[in-house]
Amino acid sequence: MTTVLFVVSAADHWTLKDGSQHPTGFWAEELAEPHRIFTEAGFELTLATPGGQVPVVDKLSLGLMGGTPAKREKIRAYLDKISGWLESPMRLDEVAESEFDLVFYPGGHGPMEDLAVDLVSGALLRNRLLSDRPLALLCHAPAAVLAAHDENGHNPFAGRTLTALSNVEERMNYFSWKARWLLETELKDAGINYQKATFPYWSHVVTDGNLYTGQNPQSSVELAELLVQKLKQQ
């Protein structure tokens, strides 16, 4: 059976440059839709978070920013359906990425708070990328690659091509004007070849060898379906 490790932020806030804490977590669609698609494909899914903390959903992702009322209700119902899975995460420092066919990071602003500086996650990402086995990150989740440097400061993601939420898309969030940093800018500064869609909030997926990335929540389904296709070919 194909196995998938979901690595999810445990953060429930994003610290802004004025010191305020914006409530956040994982983005509902970015976890629910890939989880559904992988489950329907017959994959076995495991959840891990920093410290084994139960992840929280960003309430904005279940409000107006999460799409149409019908879409939001569908995703809310799905999260309720998998609540037991969400409430029983493994500790990230106790999982071996090599045991999984795919490592998948959903986004939300949570990764900007914890995974961007989490060295356990960083080592996992570094090992996974260099193993040449499938690794996928969605929307804000590529913030986690900023912690993937080794003891000499080298980051293996430098020179690789990926996508993530763009600065234009981020600035559509009213609170982002108080952000300490923006993801697109930081990825470029880290030497990563960043790509984005022609228009904001269009689905956009980038593949670079074993690295798969999606730009925004709208990319959730396209990214997950591509991963199912690739994994079933193996």
Describe the structure.
- The chain is an alpha/beta fold.
- It has one domain (3-233): Rossmann fold (3-Layer(aba) Sandwich), CATH 3.40.50.880.
- It has eight helices and eleven strands.
- It is globular and about 45 Å long.
- The N and C termini lie close together (12 Å).
What would a concise description of this structure say?
This protein has eight helices and eleven strands. 46% of the residues are buried.
What are the defining features of this structure?
single chain; 234 residues; alpha/beta; Rossmann fold; two-stranded antiparallel ribbon; 8 helices; 11 strands; EC 4.2.1.130; stress response; Class_I_gatase-like; DJ-1/PfpI; Molecular chaperone Hsp31 and glyoxalase 3
